[in-house]
Amino acid sequence: MSQTIQEYYLNSMEKLFFTLLPEYSQEGDYFYRMKSQYGQGSLRIISFNDMFMFLIADYMPNEDFEKISEISQSYIEISQFETNSSAFKIGKQNIKAVKKGVFCYINKTKQIHVYCKAKKRVCFTKVVISQEYYDTFLKERYKDNYYEAKNAMKFLTISPNLPELNFIFQQIKSCKATGVSQHIYLEGKVLELLALATYRHEQSLKKEGLNVKLSKNDLRVLKKVIKFMEKSLSKYLSIKDFSKIANMSTTRFQLAFKKTYGTTTYEYFKTLRMNHALILLRDSNYSIKSIANEVGYNNAGHFSGVFKKMYGVTPKKYRDMQNIV
Fold it and tell me: 264-278, pLDDT tens digit by residue?
């Protein structure tokens, strides 16, 4: 059946074992609870006239299940996963496990399979931007320059590891606004995502002249370094430690890393730490000192200073803000 992505989700929730809760929903903002016989948790859909939509999910199925979708509409999906308990397959590609972090892909009406494991929590926030959003609003407002935003999205599918995106996703998930204020706030976040991706794309183009040539194996070992970083947020690690994992000299490693990810190794690692701190501040009752230790800072004051410099607020202020729009 031919349908847009909005039609697909709104028409298939019952088949996916979710039921609408009208008392927590309003026009354009739909809150679903997983049926108790199939699992527990919720899924929220916030939709804006087929232009863009948001999905915020946190559920745990009782049994393994597979979701198959066929969408007639081309769109871009940018997601932040806080769990790694599901998998997906696009078109005829091989099944890939979902990893914690940011993921981006462009769908050209291909069939998508999503697999969720029994008794495993699934937690994600997704932003879906339709082709129509590019070809109406962006093209009308930015004329020929709107192609830069489209190219930036292609860049993001190749290199989605922009740690700054995590902060935007946390703001989307924590938004308490409703009605018009919600619409303005969330559309602003869509533009912020596009702006960040465009900026990073522009920076990567400027760095293409860096004096280092990278092979497929180089790119593969750099991804291995990123995985090591993600598992070692509480450890003190040097450039030498990272370069050993990549099997490169420290000089070549730093050039290769900056050319690939558009920033220094230290800045990337620091931002991964701060983004993990965001989640702990929002979802746990850990003290600021404990969170500082979790992300590799023995001194809570130093941690707070780094956090404020990056996000403009102290860790305590950020935690307090979660009860505000």
Answer: 899 889 988 998 898
